[in-house]
């Protein structure tokens, strides 16, 4: 080990030794001093404020601060030797049993009643008691008889605030703390990347002080200031990236597509059978103005299921066709692409029948391009697209494959953007000579701070009112475990709706046998929970049991495309009473006659997902009903989440709740790029004001120095915090 000054790039093996460095690398992906310094404590324990043992979950890897209450040694039944059982408590009434196998008399002497320690391990349960088997531990402070504990590790925890790090079984928190101390003792801080003017204006401490105080806080006040500075760095890095990209995009050339009097758009508006809502009009005006500029539109359109986003998108597509271009709409599934196709043909009527009898003057053609088209139909559709006769092209990402060429692609509409990868959108963009205008649609309401942080380079439009004629949706939780009679009542309620001439969905979290796919969660029965209910298992049980005699169809993502389409068509036509499906129905499949949805194992779905699912009922004039069936007990977090969904139809409220309950790295795309997220402290909900301030500073800085040439340390820091892959993810939403 070296005593030379350490920099951010110094390999850890030079500082903490080969063996420890290897453990840090293989278990926590840490290789340099910088990796370790930016591995921040997850929380801080205080002597007088101990972890609540009662809140521990079975299966969780934990570190608890607790006091030894009593020890007991007994012979093992199955093999030779003794078992040492140590009962520890945290002062809150919670107790935990530590078990050590083998003859370890020295441990019994060490773990005397009254001694405090940090104990780390995986929580298991034995005969109703929670325990840690063979935990790692370090004892703190003085022994019960006043003897001062002298070893170096114990000194690490002499301060009032004890850092507890995200750890691994092989690298417990105190080993990380010891390594951090070794590094900090020889660490030469990097040049502070934050311009002094910003530091002064926002009252932020220097980076060296912040990094030292977050690991070894001298007081709660100093810890708060350290966290605030490091959160600022994260927010500022993201906002600078987004503002720079927005700035660069404004310089890209795009073909202007201004509205044309007397064109298809005017004809479409004249034949629309209903009035546009004020929201649709104002968003339409924003989009029309964007399309008329010589820079690419980059707009996000958010609105609940049924708020009329598709009509806004279709009007934008017609404006582009009027200006001589083509428009493509990407849908996440063939079912949805086919539904958009049928819906647009109905809305456009003779305006979409160029070359056919009864076509309107100046009509265009609408083509559907999906992977399941037959060879002859595909050749014909591709020729229509390549020669420019098809002004509107709909499809899944099959549109992106080789062989689909556009004559003049002017607008790309992406429906439910979170279903598409970055590469797929890039491939579509590459099909135009100049960057096309882009309109991204989502039915998942996005809280303001997420919009600012994840979609900060898109202009955002929101459709908040539902069109006239959409009915309210009532939602109720059905507690199947506590009140089985309620579940029987739910099936009777479904039969009543069918008897009244309506239709119903039954949604399950899983398809059936075979590995989990994107639309079904993994079978999380490690802790004794049964696997989630599956479509292929539930459908026959319903057909033989509570829904006997009804016409039941099955829909899930593993069915061949033509079969999926056939099932959806027969449900839409009213030939099926009940559709048993996975979340493949989540993305806006539109059957106005469907009035009831029963979601089984509803606690296995996310909040926004449930909100979006229930948008599938109540699309017609009859009221919608959504029943959330769960075995989650009253008072549990899962049950509280479902109660929240049932209590409001405000998608924005639910989106905030969803955000609180998800790991925020998911929101920032850490899972998208597969890279380790460097955004560790920032909370999109709690730090909304800080993010807003960081955005204001980022806009001011980029306006005067677009490429950060006068701030090289800041540019390097941004590159480290928001790596290129994540920057691309942020850019493309």
From TrEMBL:
Residues in Helicase C-terminal domain copies: 486-660
Stored Gene3D superfamilies: Nucleic acid-binding proteins, P-loop containing nucleotide triphosphate hydrolases
GO molecular function (one): DNA helicase activity
Pfam families from the UniProt entry: DEAD, Helicase_C, RecG_dom3_C, RecG_wedge
Domain Helicase ATP-binding: 290-463
Region annotation Disordered: where it falls in the sequence: 511-531
Sorted UniProt keywords: ATP-binding, DNA damage, DNA repair, DNA-binding, Helicase, Hydrolase, Nucleotide-binding
Highest taxon in the source lineage: Bacteria
PANTHER family in the record: ATP-DEPENDENT DNA HELICASE HOMOLOG RECG, CHLOROPLASTIC
Protein name: Probable DNA 3'-5' helicase RecG
Organism: Micromonospora sicca
Lineage of the organism: Bacteria, Bacillati, Actinomycetota, Actinomycetes, Micromonosporales
Gene that encodes the chain: recG
């Amino acid at each position: 080990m070296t005593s030379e000054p350490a920099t951010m790039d110094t390999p850890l093996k030079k500082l903490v030794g080969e063996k420890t460095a290897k453990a840090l690398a293989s278990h926590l992906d840490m290789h340099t001093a910088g990796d370790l310094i930016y591995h921040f404590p997850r929380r801080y324990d205080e002597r007088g404020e101990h972890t609540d043992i009662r809140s521990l979950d079975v299966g969780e890897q934990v570190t608890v601060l607790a006091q030894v209450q009593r020890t007991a040694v007994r012979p093992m039944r199955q093999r030779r030797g003794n078992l040492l059982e140590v009962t520890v408590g945290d002062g809150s009434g919670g107790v935990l049993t530590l078990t050590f196998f083998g003859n370890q008399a020295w441990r019994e002497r060490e773990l005397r009643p009254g001694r405090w320690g940090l104990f780390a391990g995986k929580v298991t349960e034995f005969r109703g008691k929670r325990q840690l088997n063979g935990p790692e531990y370090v004892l703190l402070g003085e022994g019960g008889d006043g003897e001062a504990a002298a070893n170096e590790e114990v000194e690490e925890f002499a301060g009032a605030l004890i850092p507890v790090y995200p750890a691994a079984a092989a690298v417990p928190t105190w080993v990380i703390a010891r390594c951090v101390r070794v590094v900090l003792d020889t660490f030469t801080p990097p040049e502070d990347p934050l311009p002094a003017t910003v530091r002064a204006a926002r009252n932020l401490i220097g980076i060296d002080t912040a990094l030292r105080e977050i690991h070894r806080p001298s007081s709660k006040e100093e810890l708060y200031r350290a966290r605030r500075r490091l959160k600022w760095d994260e927010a500022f890095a993201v906002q600078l990236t987004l503002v720079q990209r927005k700035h660069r995009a404004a310089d890209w050339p795009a073909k202007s597509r201004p509205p044309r009097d007397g064109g298809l758009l005017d004809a479409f508006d004249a034949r629309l059978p209903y009035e546009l809502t004020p929201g649709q009009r104002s968003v339409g005006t924003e989009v029309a103005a964007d399309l008329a500029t010589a820079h690419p539109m980059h707009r996000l359109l958010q609105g609940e299921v049924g708020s009329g986003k598709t009509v806004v998108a279709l009007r934008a597509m017609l404006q582009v066709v009027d200006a001589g271009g083509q428009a493509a709409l990407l849908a996440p599934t063939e079912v949805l692409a086919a539904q958009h196709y049928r819906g647009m043909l109905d809305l456009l009527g003779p305006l979409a029948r160029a070359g056919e009898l009864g076509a309107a003057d100046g009509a265009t053609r609408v083509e559907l391009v999906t992977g399941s088209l037959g060879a002859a139909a595909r050749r014909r559709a591709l020729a229509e697209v390549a020669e420019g006769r098809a002004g509107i092209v709909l499809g899944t990402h099959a549109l992106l494959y080789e062989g689909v060429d556009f004559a003049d692609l002017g607008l790309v509409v992406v429906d439910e953007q979170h279903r598409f990868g970055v590469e797929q959108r890039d491939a579509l963009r590459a099909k135009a000579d100049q960057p096309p205008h882009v309109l991204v649609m989502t039915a998942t309401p996005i809280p303001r701070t997420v919009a600012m942080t994840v979609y900060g380079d898109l202009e955002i439009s929101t459709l908040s009112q539902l069109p006239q004629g959409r009915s309210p949706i009532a939602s109720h939780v059905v507690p199947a475990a506590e009140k089985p009679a309620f579940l029987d009542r739910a099936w009777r309620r479904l039969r009543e709706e069918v008897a009244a001439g309506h239709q119903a969905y039954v949604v399950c979290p899983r398809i059936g046998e075979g590995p989990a796919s994107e639309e079904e969660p993994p079978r999380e029965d490690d802790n004794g929970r049964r696997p989630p209910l599956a479509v292929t298992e539930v459908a026959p049980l319903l057909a033989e049991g509570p829904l006997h005699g009804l016409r039941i169809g099955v829909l899930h993502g593993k069915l061949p495309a033509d079969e999926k389409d056939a099932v959806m068509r027969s449900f839409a036509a009213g030939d099926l009473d009940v559709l048993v499906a996975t979340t493949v129905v989540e993305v806006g499949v539109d059957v106005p006659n469907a009035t009831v949805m029963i979601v089984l194992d509803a606690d296995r779905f996310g909040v926004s997902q449930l909100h979006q699912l229930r948008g599938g009922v109540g699309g017609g004039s009859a009221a919608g009903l959504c029943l959330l069936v769960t075995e989650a007990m009253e008072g549990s977090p899962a049950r509280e989440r479902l109660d929240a969904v049932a209590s409001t139809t405000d998608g924005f409220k639910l989106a905030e709740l969803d955000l609180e309950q998800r790991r925020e790295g998911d929101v920032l795309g850490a899972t998208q790029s597969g890279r380790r997220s460097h955004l560790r402290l920032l909370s999109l909900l709690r730090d909304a004001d800080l993010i807003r301030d960081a955005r204001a500073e980022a806009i001011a800085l980029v306006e005067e120095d677009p490429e950060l040439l006068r701030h090289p340390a800041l540019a390097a820091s941004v590159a480290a915090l928001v790596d290129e892959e994540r920057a691309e993810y942020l850019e493309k939403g």
